[in-house]
Amino acid sequence: MDLVTRIYHALGGGAAALAVIVALIALVGALAGVLTSYLVAGRTVYINSITAERSKWIEKLRTNIAAHSGLLAELSFTLHGQKVVKNEGSGMASLVVNVLTKINNSAAIIQLQLNPWNEIDKNILSLIESIVIRDGTDHNLVDEADKLLIAHSQWLLKAEWEKVKYEAHGGFYRWWYNNDDEKRLKEYRAWVGKEGSLTDVLARFAKEKARK
C-alpha cells in the first residue's frame, strides 16, 4: 500500500480525505518550488559575484603585467642607450636605478596577484623574481625576459578566462572545461619545453646576481 493510500484511509476516506491529500500534494509542490527557486537564486548570485570578481582580477592582472612589460622595455632601452648619468661610487646609471625602483614595485604587485601553487603562475613568478641588473648587464637579456613574460602571461590569462566560462555554465561545460584544461596544460608544458623555456634566461640572470 503506497503512502497516499495509507493517508487516505487514515483520514477516513471519502471526498474530504481526498481533498486533504490534494491540498497536501499542492503544498509539498509549492514548498519544493520555493526551495528550488531559493537554491537556484543563491547559486546564481554566488556565480555572478565570483565571475565578476575573477573578471576584475584578470583585468587588473593584465594591466599590471602590461605595465611591468613596459618598464622592462624602458630598462632595456636605458641599458642600451648612452644618455645615462652615473651615480657617484655606485657604478650604476641613475636612470637605470630609477627604472629598477619602478620595476621592483610593479613586480611586488604582480607577485601578490599570482597563485604560487599554480604551474603557469609559478613560472611567471620565477621569471619576475629572477630579474637582476648589474652594471654592464646585456639589454638583450632583459628583452628576452620581457618576451617570455608576455608569452607565459598569455597562457595564464587564457586559462583564467576559461575558468570564468566554467563558473558561469552548467555541468556539461564543466566536463568540457576539465578535458580542455588538461589538454591546454599539456600543450603549455610542451611549449615550455621548447620556445617557452625559462632555463637559459634564469641561468643568465643567476650569473648576473652572482657577479659583483
List keywords for this structure.
single chain; 7 helices; 81% helix; mainly alpha; 212 residues
Structure description:
The chain is an all-alpha fold and 212 residues long. It is built from seven helices and no strands. It is elongated. The termini are far apart. The model has no long low-confidence stretch (mean pLDDT 79).
Secondary-structure element string: HHHHHHH
Helices and strands: which structural class?
Answer: mainly alpha
Would you identify the regions where 5 or more consecutive residues have pLDDT less than 50?
none
Helix content: over 70%
How many E-type strands?
0
Q: Shape from CA axes?
A: elongated
Q: Terminal Cα separation, in Å?
A: 91 Å
Mean pLDDT: 79
Profile the largest sheet.
Answer: none
Percent range for β-strand residues: under 5%
Q: Any idea what the radius of gyration is? A: 30 Å
| Number of H/I helices | 7
Summarize the structure.
The protein is an all-alpha fold and 212 residues long. It is built from seven helices and no strands.
Secondary structure elements and their pairing?
Elements: H1 3-10, H2 14-80, H3 94-113, H4 119-130, H5 139-168, H6 171-192, H7 199-210
Helix pairs in contact: 1-2, 2-3, 2-5, 4-5, 5-6
